[in-house]
Amino acid sequence: MVRFFPMKHFILLAYILIFSTGFASLAGLAVLALRLSHPFIKRMLLVQSLFIANLALVAGYYYAKQVMDLVGTTSSVDFTFAVIATLLNLALYGSLVYLLSLHSFRTAHKGLSKTALALCLTTMAIQLLHLASALFGAQALTSSGQWSVITYLVVGCAMLSLGILLLKSRKNDDHPSLKTLYGGIGLSCLLFVPLGAMEYVLGAFTQFAYQPLSLEYLMYLLINTTILIAAAKVLAKQPQSGSAFGELTPDTAKRFLLTAREQEMASLIAQGLTNKEIAFRLGISEATVRTHIYNLFQKVGVQSRIELLNVLHQ
Question: Contact 112/165 with Cβ under 8 angstroms?
Answer without folding.
Answer: yes
